[in-house]
Amino acid sequence: MDILLAFNELDYNLASSLMSNIIPFALPLTPILPRVVGNLDYTQERRQLERINQLLATSDLEAQFIQASLGHRQPPTTAPADRMTPKQQVRFQEHSRRALRCNIARALLQVDYRGLAVRLADSPLYQWFCAVGELEVIQVPSKSTLQRYDAWVPTETLRPIMDQLLRAGRDEAPKLQLLQPLDLDRLFLDSTCLKAKIHFPVDWVLLRDGTRTVMKAVSLIRQQGLKQRMESPEKFIRRMNGLCIAMTQARRQPASKKQRKRVLRSMKRVVHAVAGHARRYRDLLDREWARTQWSRKQTEQVLKRLDGMLEQLPAAITQAHERIIGERPVKNADKMLSLYEPDLHVIVRGKAEAEVEFGNLLLLSESPAGLIADFQLFQDRVPADVSLLPESVERAEQALGQKLKGVGADRGFDSQANRACLEGKQIYNGICPKAPETLKQRLKQKKFVTAQRRRAQTEGRIGILKNNFLGRPLRAKGFVNRERAVAWAVLAHNLWVMARLPQRQVKEKQRKAA
Fold it and tell me: Which domain holds residue 300?
């Protein structure tokens, strides 16, 4: 036909093989992708997306995601009156399929919501992959819709889907057209710091951040016609900015300690004045919010912002006083690193480029083929590597539905308890021992040397995940959003790795050609 149309056979199989409580829906006709020659990079990217599209359908991952989205949207305990109508459910299933593909595309492209919206409007290739291109009209999701897609399901819902992909690659390799089944018998562990996008945690910078946030909230309230006697909020912000400049320049002066203490005392006076005005405006807005143009929900957002800052400012003042005026150290467990990210920690890594990092500890387990089989992001603590091994092995065996045969890691994971744990489970211990004499003896074993050489590649895998799929720094704010971003990045990474594995059909064609 002269009119180039494409109805993807894999998409048709998806619609016909959905689970029982998913209503079958017809996928729209989409324009066929144009034939582009002379650009090798585009050709490779197109083949990669076509292979990922094939994996999504043949592994039933897409159907499982739609199923999980429905379960999250309306659990079985939902009252009949609150359940979706068939038409609403079909529409929700279409958005669920689109959410899965858009999140994978955003992780592959490493762009923000606005950047992906522009790319979808411009690229027929990503319109096809994200299921937004139709024959009659192409309606791409906005940046706000893409943000809702990012939070479509929680992290707990994504974990079984990632496990399903790995099990399908192991048990159904011919169906996925893989030349060999995935080897998931051995895992290689390592940990890293997932840095947060925050200011360098200088104590007096927290006072500046609190002043700016509080005065901007007060300015919004004044714009709604609720005013009390005070100086302009912008004057407080300018005054604090001037003190920040003076604090920075104080390091170059002869009596730097005395000058820094003097500037900090001035900062504390400004913060106390700002906090007093903020409390009065907070109470005024709570009493007379009906006089504004805001709804009660909008009012609650401003009140929540003010309450959060007013609650943290005294602790920030105390910390800055102890460090600068009192010249006393503050324990890492008691340090406030950010007014906006409460779940961050000081992680001492001892690296050449970063002696100390600020963020959350991330544990990864990698298979021999480079697939991430397990991950864990820690919110309220920074555990030692030695305590992470038993839980990771237990999670991996339960998720993959099989018994591990070997584990490799660096010397940070070595301990007598871990050696006994692996021996009790009859798992080969490929962990680098801490004792030099023991290491010297184990280096004579070929199997151990092979495991350690492969274990060293896990550090490169961490760099690939952080730089090419998560971004550096990670844009997501809040621990829940950061954890979900890691889950989406791991899913996109595993699809990317599986798309690059040797395929059965390709080898057969090469053999026939030979």
Answer: 203-334
